[in-house]
Amino acid sequence: MKIISFNVNGIRAIMQKSFVEDMKKVDADIICLQETKATVEQVKEVAKAVDGYHVFANEAERKGYSGTAILTKHVPISVTYYIGKQEHDNEGRITCAEFEAYFLITVYVPNSGSELARLGYRQTWDKEFLDYLKNLEKTKPVIVCGDFNVAHKAIDLARPKENFNKAAGFMQEEIDGMDAFSSNGLVDTFRAKNGDEIKYSWWSYRAGARGKNIGWRIDYFLVSESLLPKVKDAFILNEVMGSDHCPVGITLQ
User: pTM score, two decimals?
Assistant: First the structure.
């Protein structure tokens, strides 16, 4: 079972690039998307080009903003789109598919913003999203993947000293949010499987950052501790283009 997560930065835009061909090469059982920037119907319409998948999508009330989706070859037991907090649930930030052995959640975590205007909101989100995940865990384990908009450790970005407590994505408050996930039994699969390997999943469009590999690892697969023995591999697909992010993924045995 191969599952990938990809912040596509606009599904209609990336479909005009090599997305369909790239997804055929990756050949994942499940594709989790963030920042679709489209309505549910628009996502379903354009995703028809990726053959063989059932499509489930969530949209923000604000047009062209946020949005998540799951494309799956395996029909889920159920799909939900809310964490149960209205202030969060109008931005289309999660899609949750229930399968026999686990819940799979794709998430687009709020960005604190260039002026850190949403840092306080982001802290509220982190706490309430963790509560949501732990509530799901009462029923069965969880796999949560997506753009968490934070580099957890200094190893997870190319220029930690320049960015710590100065830039969204590497503020102590955001790092504390990720610490809370890990201290509550949600394991970062890439670190669990790859140790201190340096690899990034997002690059600024400015100053040729991707070509120079001046990047950040802000896209994750977290799993309940009970699922970790079933994670055979965790990987980052730097070679897949089309967005300012690249796909990340896991293989389950």
Answer: 0.97
